[in-house]
Amino acid sequence: MTLEISGLKAANDAFTLGPIDLTVDEEILSVLGPSGCGKTTLLSLVAGILDADAGTVHLNGTDLTGLPPEDRGTAYVFQDGALFPHMTVRENVTYAADSAAVVDELTETLAVADLMDRTVGTLSGGERQRVALARALAARPDALLLDEPLANLDAPIKRRLRFELRDFLSQLDIPVVYVTHDQRQATTMGDRIAVMRDGTVRQAGTAEEIFERPATRFVAEFTGSVNLFTADVLDRDDDGLCLAWGDTVLDAPAYGVESDTVWFCIRPEYVMLLREDRPVDERDNVLRGRIRRRVYQGDDYVVEFQPDAVADPIEIRLPTPVYERLSLDDRDRVRVSLKKRAIHVVDDAGVRSE
Amino acid sequence: MFQTDSTTETFESRTDWYRVGLTLGALLLLYYLVPLASLLLSQSPGAVVERLGDGYVIAATRNSLVTATASTLLSATFGLPLAYWLARTNFGGKNAILTLVLLPLVFPPIVSGMLLLQVFGPAGLGGLLSVEVTRSLVGIVLAQTFVASPFFVVTAKAAFESVDRRLEYASRSLGKDGETTFRKVTLPLAKPGIVAGLTLTFARAMGEFGATLMLAYYPRTLPVQIWQSFLTDGLDAAFPVAVVLVGVAVVSLLVINALGRNPWRGESE
To answer: CA dist A258 to A251, A262, A344, B115, Å?
Structure first.
C-alpha cells in the first residue's frame, strides 16, 4: 500500500501550503515542524476535511481528489482523540468496526479491553489516545493519519507511550503519517522524517540523514543542532574542504559545496574531548580552549567549550561516566577534536533559500 | 504607610459598590416575586380550582395545547436544517440571514399579526385559495409559528455550534457518511440544546397573544380567553385561565433547567 502526495497545494487568506510531494509506503512517516508550518493542514487535505487547490493524493493507486472523507479510507486521529463523549469506550471502538474479531484483537493489543464499559469522560489522556487509535484501526483504514497524538500527555506517560506506540505502529501494514513538533517523537516514530516549514517540506529522509546531514540551516536548528557556525572556504578538492573559522583552519567533507561562505554543524555528542595524555594528530581539527560552563542534566553533562581561536563557544555533550573519567570537574584547559567526518557542511545557497 | 492607606480606601469603596449592587439586584428580584405572591394570595385556591373545570377554560386549554404543539413541530421541521446550516456555514451573507431569523423576535407581535393578516387573510392568500384562515386553528398556528419559531432556530443553532466539528470529521474519516454522522454524533450531542429550544418555542407559542389576536381571534386560545374573560367579567374570571398558563410556564422552566445538566458532561467534570 502506498500513499502518494504530489504537487498538493492549498491556500487561505493567511497561509499557503505546498506544493508538497511525499510518498509513504507501508511505513511511518513523521512530519516534523514548528507550529503553524502547515502539518495539520497537510493531514486535513489528505483526509478530505479540507479541499486542495491543486495537486493529487493517491492511495493504492486510487485518486482521492474530490472524494468525501468517508470514501477515502484515511482514518484521522486527532490530537486529543476526539472520542464521542456521549458514547462508552465500547461504543466508540465499535462505531465503525469492521468485525468483532478486529475489535477484540485491537482492544487486547492496545490494552483498552478493561476500559470498554467506561464513559469517555473518565479516561486519562493516555487511555484516550489508545481508545482513539483502536477506534480508527477498527475501521480497517488504508492509511492512518495521526495529529500530535502525544502532545497533551504528561512527560512520563509520553515517554512510555512513545515506545509502545512505535512498536504498535511499525507492525501495521499501511502507510502511517505521524505529525509532531517534537523531534524526539519524530525520530522514535518515524521510519523516515519530513521536516516542514512555512507550508513546504524542507527535507525528507531517515532520522540519521536529517539529524546528521541537515540540508538547510533551518533543519539543522530545528532538529537541535546547537553547534552551527559560519566559515569561509579557503580551498577545496575532491576529498574535502578547507575552512577558515576564526583564527583556525578546519578540514571538512565536501558534499559538492560551491559557495565561498558556508554553514557547518557538529552535533554536541560528536565533539571529542581529548584526554590530557593522549597524543594528538593535528589533522583531526584539534582546538585548544577552556571550559566555560558545566551543566549536569541527569543522564549526561553539557559542557560549554570556548576555543582560543574562535569567538563562538561549542557545546559538548558527554555521558556522565565519560565526564567523570576525564575528571573534568578539576580541569579548565582542555583540547577538543572536531573529527572531519563528524562535521556537516550546509551549502550557503541552502541558507539563502530559507 | 501611604500605600496602606490607599489600599484600605480602595477596599472600602469596593464594599460600598458591592452593597449598592446587591441592593439593586434584590429589588429587582422582589419585583419579580411580588406579583407571583399576589396571584397565590389574592385568589382563594378553592374558587380557582372550581372554575378550572368550566367549559370555556377547558376549550381554551385544548385549543392552546393543540396549536402550540403543532407550531412547535412546524418550527422543528423547518428550523432544524436552517439551524444546522447557520451553525456550520461560513457563508458571507450569514449575518443577514440571522437578522431575518431574529426579526420576528423584535417585532411587536401585534404588528406581526397585522402583516400575517395581510398575507394570509381574506385579502391575501386565504382569499385566493378560499381558505378561512382567520377563524381557524390554522390561523393560530401560523401566528404562533411566526412569533415562536425563531426561539427554536436560535437555540438549536447554539446547540449545534457547541458540538466540536472534529467529532464530525472523526466520524467521517471513519467511513461514516454525512447523514449517519449527523444522526449518530451531531444530533445526540446537540439534543439537550434542541429540546431546550423546543420547550422555549412551546412556551412562547402557548403565551402568544398579539399576533393571534389579529389573525385568529376565534377559536380562543388561553391568552385570548384571558382577554375575553377580563373584558366581560373582570379580573376574577380571568384568573383560573391564567393559572393554567402559569402552570405551563413553570413546567417549561423546570424542563429547561433539567436539560442544563448534560448527562455525559456531568460525569466527566
So the answer is: 16, 9, 15, 81
